[in-house]
Amino acid sequence: MPARGRPRSPDAQKAILKAAYELLLESGFDEVTVEKIAERAGVGKATIYKWWPNKAAVVMDGFFSAAADRLPVPDTGSVYEDVLIHATNLTAFMVGPEGRIIAELIGQGQLDPALMQAFRMHYIQPRRSEAMLLLNRGSQRGELKANLSLALGVDLLYGPLFYRLLVTGESLDHEGVKGIVALAFNGLRA
After folding, report:
1. In whole angstroms, what is the distance from residue 4 CA to residue 126 CA?
2. Cβ–Cβ under 8 Å, residues 51 and 34
3. What's the pTM value of the predicted model, to 2 decimals?
């Protein structure tokens, strides 16, 4: 059965997602409105509501779109190098303005289960899947312990990054990421 209504214009969709992301970084989640997104994107509010059910959905899509563009999955042939690059890129993303947004979304998610579910599904799970792909490749090449739980390996590698961002507030720099990855790989290597 064909879809009803006009299909999404790729240009309008891109403009909406970009506007939502920019406003989120500039003002924070609470200050973003569908009206402001529509104005900046040069579209009507009805266009946004036709494609997204609410402000949270369009703002989250804008954020996740930017995250996917800025966090490529490396394939150097070395699991250690791949994880180091991936974790370093993720850290750079998290210590920038996006980190404040991540903390804000997680905080808002404590009061809004639908928002938290969307955050987990569209931001956390893709990053987790990418990290598991990296570890799986390393496991298949014999670089990691044969009985390694990939899920626990991801937790061991990436948990400290989120812990520092959300709990301790300690800095996350390149040397810190290298130290975390090096320590974790002491327990992961074959």
Report:
1. 30
2. no
3. 0.79
